[in-house]
Amino acid sequence: MLERPVGAGEPVSPGLAALLGTSSAPHSPAAAKDREHLALLGTTAMGSEGFAALQALADDPAVLALYERLDALASAPADDPRIAPLAADLVAAVPGAVLEAIPDSGPVVTGFGEALLADYPPAQAEVVRLVMTGMTGVTGGVNRRRR
Fold first, then answer.
1. How far apart (Å, rounded) are the C-alpha atoms in residues 102 and 95?
2. pLDDT digits over 23-37, tens only?
3. In whole angstroms, what is the distance from residue 8 CA to residue 19 CA?
4. Spatial CA neighbour of 1 closest among 73, 75, 90, 80
């Protein structure tokens, strides 16, 4: 999720600065992308509660292996057999508190999901799409599952 701690001059919310400030993850192209997407989310509906909920995920050393698996899909086709298992593992890694922090109206502004997917190569975009689908329940609301 996080490539490096936030820099002093970066314009991010206090909640995001706290989350990014604890990062010690090694370089990963997918982690760098997550950092950019989190910064963008920080300008929309995601508040400090959401970023605080992500802290457990950022602190989990198993997340690094998930990033490595996502990075390995950078040049894979959208029908690669590694996609579905990785998406399932990513959804399973999301703490229940993160889902609880997502507003009932959804986590982001209209069009963000489409823009997010367009930022990834095909196989990675498919993983992210499946993760978004797995984290959101039926149309009209967020699946408030607890882990």
1. 12
2. 555 577 777 777 766
3. 14
4. 90
Q: Higher pLDDT residue, 132 or 44? A: 132
pLDDT tens readout for residues 75-104: 999 999 999 999 999 988 888 877 776 666
What's the pTM? 0.70
Token pair in block for residue 36: 């950019």
Residue with tokens 């602190």: 59
Asked whether 52 and 41 are in contact (CB, 8 A), the reply is no
Residue 116 binned pLDDT confidence (cut-offs 50, 70, 90)? confident
Segments making up each domain of the chain, as ranges: 14-135
Report d(CA 112, CA 122) in Å as an integer: 17
- Residue 16 carries which side chain, given as an amino acid letter? L
Which ranges in 1-147 belong to alpha helices (H)? 14-20, 29-41, 48-59, 62-71, 83-93, 96-101, 112-118, 122-135
Nearest to 81 by CA among 31, 116, 127, 120: 127
Q: Return the amino acid letter for 125.
A: A
In angstroms, the CA 39 to CA 137 distance is 25
Q: Under a CB-based contact definition with an 8 Å cutoff, are residues 94 and 130 in contact?
A: no
